[in-house]
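quick one before i forget lol
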Amino acid sequence: MLDKAKALHDELIRLRRDIHAHPELGFQEFRTSALVADTLTELGIDVQTGVGRTGVVGQIGTGSGPTIAIRADMDALPILQKSDAAYKSRNPGVMHACGHDSHTAMLLGAAHLLKQSLADGGWQGNVRFLFQPSEEAFDENGISGATAMLSDGALAGVDAVIALHVASDQPSGQIRLQDGYALANVDSFKAWVRGDGGHGAYPHTGSDPLHMLSVILPAIYAIPSRRINPLRGCVVSLGQISGGAAPNVIPNEVYIQGTIRSFHDEVREQLPVEVERAFKLAEQMGGSYEFQLTKGYPAMFNDAEVNGWMREVAQEMVGETAVLNTEFGMGAEDFAYMTRQAKGAMFMLGAAIDDGLARHHHTDIFDIDESVLPLGAAILAETAHRFVTGKVR
């Protein structure tokens, strides 16, 4: 399968660069969806468009038996790209800064490989290709691309689901897997601490929200170490504190926002309670507070069995030393919604460009080593092929 994927090298790069040059934000992936649908149709694959609004679903197989799905995300980010590459973004202020263009190209490559395999026979099931919109953000109603596709039945009848994500900070061609919880629950909060404000020369005449915050902040930062079971990892981080406009004026309000991350559902439920309890200290100091929580993606759980299928395939293709079992971290992925509906897993594919420049995800200089595209397509295709031919299940 890897040799066949390498034969598609130029086509995979063409697809990736075409998508990279025409990035589209979440639920606006009209051109990308059309490109995907046209490519699948040319391969002779049945296509359904408008799934999850701008998502595309293709399926091949026997029409009966078990079904495995492969998912790729298609959306870009609102970032102005810094690049001299010929394939740089032609949509100012929008950029593929997380590798979703490569995910889409690799899944199209996997579809090509599996369509060839289907003609060879021996299949006992089906492969469904899920091209998902809006992984990076919710809409105004709290809907992401994965939840939108699930609502439209994209995983109906699916027995397993797999995916990959490129990692621009890992050596090119290195494969990383993690069983169990691999990426975090992610929620965010906003809070306002309020007092009377007043003249900086006469602080005793009113209540000072900045002083209240000096008590609240240590209480917040103590939550992971003193309020949560130390065997349950979590993070509470503040991203913004703002208030006041002059050196001699005590403000009447301070604004704070932050992120809350965890792996386990019970910790996810406890964390916002503890954070709000910290803000409640303002009331004991003569002030008041307002607290707003916004729920984000759930933690992504990688099924050990499904991971095992991909691990075996990867080891055969690149060797055991290039396949690592390691922690992913506390980032977030809405693929987590899919792995809660069907057993599934995602692996990380190292794609760092070896030029000494750190091209981190979600930055304006993000880019990848395109030589990994055939490898990613081959691992996805071979894992699915073994599933539908009964070699794993």
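fyi The chain has a mean pLDDT of 97.
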